[in-house]
Specification:
Number of helices: 17
Number of domains: 2
CATH class of the largest domain: Alpha Beta
CATH topology of the largest domain: Hexokinase, domain 1
Helix content: 40-55%
Structural class: alpha/beta
Strand content: 15-25%
Length: 502
């Protein structure tokens, strides 16, 4: 019995040792995994670095590209398109004007009654209409007939006091957020459809002419006074509220910028000086690229796998369409190379764009002690049920790295515009404020992003200069801004306007 007891004790001790060894190995394995994951995070942080010196290089590169794009067509990655908007709203506009905002699967029709300096926006009404899927791939006549019918129906609801003067046409500002080669303030040829639309017979056609014919078929006597995109609409809306607005930036799903250029600084205007001596330039700044942009292997892979490789590089680093996707790609790499989420890579994590920027923003803004919002997002979206607080903290840090880079580069772009206009030094800004109108869901709803961007503008410019620079939220520029541009480019300008509202 003694020998049996000794044997049992030996076996028991061996089992305990084996179990302990397994625990040690497991801990070492986990420690090794964690170290690899942290190394990936650290590498991402370093490659996304945007010290002030680097941002100033981006500012200079943006300014150089702006000059090149103005000097010759195709001379820069920035298209620097002449918008033909040479008469921005002043606040004196009076009368009833309409806007049509077409930029996706819904469109809006808007009615605005303007009362001049005293009345400003007297009344504003709008209606949103969904486009049936079959019209997105049908004929241009079918699509524009549908839009014109909805517009005619909306016009028919004009209430008391909401009528144009007898003998005058109604006038419309048309926000068309698809690629267009503009030929005048009220004409432009469609380059291509995007956002799920595919209507081949309208490519190359004048979209204003298409809409005008459809309005005639609908029995609607209305003139398109201005064709614009959402960025220029935002600039117009901002200028109407504040005459110091010199530029507008959209930071949403996509991104773009427009600014007011002095006409003499536009070589390709070929001496045809606009009435005001100024011209709004549509930069299409999403296509900006520079060797100074801090790009990572994740950005390069995202670009290579996109529908437009080599294009829209700036947009792919700073806009809402892509920030969440960059975070997903880093997490996927951590899962594959460091088993961050366990021995298997969560299948949902491999799906491109499954992690949207609003989800990233919610995780980044999580202030709960256990980061429960982060945990819930991982569970609901990626089907990762169990995550430790340590893991959640890493994910918040990753969101911060990606958002900070995007925000700081956006700021550099804004300062690039200020530098092009000579408003980046104390000497040049002493006389007046320089106001940038900002719109877009990323700017409006991702608070850490917008705060970081605004602080970075001050950091680059310095305290003294930044006192004269204002970033102002200009809500719904693509709607009311188009109506305001219809007013400022009205065929009845200079004729005393009277309307039966007062």
């Amino acid at each position: 019995m003694g020998k049996v007891a000794v044997g049992a004790a030996v076996i028991c001790a061996a089992a305990v040792c084996a179990a302990a060894a397994l625990v040690v190995r497991h801990r070492m394995k986990c420690s090794g995994r964690w170290a690899r994951a942290m190394a990936i995070l650290k590498d991402m942080e370093e490659k996304c670095g945007t010290p002030t010196g680097k941002l100033r290089q981006v500012v200079d590169a943006m300014t150089v590209e702006m000059h090149a794009g103005l000097a010759s067509e195709g001379g820069s990655k920035l298209k620097m398109l002449i918008s033909y908007v040479d008469n921005l709203p002043t606040g004196d506009e009076k009368g009833l004007f309409y806007a049509l905002d077409l930029g996706g699967t819904n469109f809006r029709v808007i009615r605005v009654l303007l009362g001049g300096k005293e009345g400003r926006v007297v009344k504003q009404e709008f209606e949103e209409v969904s486009i049936p899927p079959h019209l997105m791939t049908g004929s241009s006549d079918d699509l524009f007939d549908y839009i014109a019918a909805a517009l005619a129906k909306f016009v028919a609801t004009e209430g008391e006091g909401l009528h144009v003067s007898p003998g005058r046409q109604r006038e419309l500002g048309f926000t068309f957020s698809f690629p267009v080669r503009q030929t005048s303030i009220s004409s432009g040829n469609l380059i291509k459809w995007t956002k799920g639309f595919s209507i081949e017979d309208s490519v190359g056609q004048d979209v204003v002419a298409e809409l005008t014919k459809a309005m005639e078929r609908a029995g609607l006597d209305m003139r398109v006074a201005a064709l614009v995109n959402d960025t220029i609409g935002t600039l117009a809306g901002g200028r109407y509220s504040n005459q110091d607005v010199i530029a507008a930036v959209i930071l949403g799903t996509g991104t773009n910028a427009a600014y007011v250029e002095r006409a003499y600084a536009i070589p390709k205007w070929h001496g045809l000086l606009p009435k005001s001596g100024e011209m709004v330039i549509n930069m299409e700044w999403g296509n900006f690229r520079s060797s100074h942009l801090p790009l990572t292997e994740y950005d390069q892979a995202l670009d290579a796998e996109s529908l437009n490789p080599g294009e829209q590089i700036f947009e792919k680093v700073i806009s809402g369409m892509y920030l969440g996707e960059i975070v997903r790609r880093v997490l996927c790499h951590m899962a594959e190379e460091a088993a961050f989420f366990g021995d298997t890579v969560p299948p949902k994590l491999k799906i491109p764009f499954i992690l949207r920027t609003p989800d990233m923003s919610a995780m980044h803004h999580d202030t709960s002690s256990d980061l429960r919002v982060v945990g819930n997002k991982l569970k609901d979206i990626l089907e990762i049920p169990n995550t430790s607080l340590k893991m959640r903290e890493v994910i918040v840090e990753l969101c911060d790295i990606v958002a900070t880079r995007g925000a700081r580069l956006s700021a550099a772009g804004i300062v690039g515009i200020l530098k092009k206009l000579g408003r980046d030094t104390v000497k040049d800004v002493e006389k007046q404020k320089s106001v940038i109108a900002l719109d877009g869901g990323l700017y409006e709803h991702y608070t850490k992003f917008s705060t970081c961007m605004e602080n970075t503008v001050k950091e680059i410019l310095g305290e003294e200069v930044s006192e004269n620079i204002v970033i102002e939220h200009s809500n719904d520029g693509s709607g009311i801004g188009a109506a305001l541009l219809a007013a400022s480019h009205s065929q009845y300008l200079g004729i005393d306007e009277s309307f039966s509202t007062f």
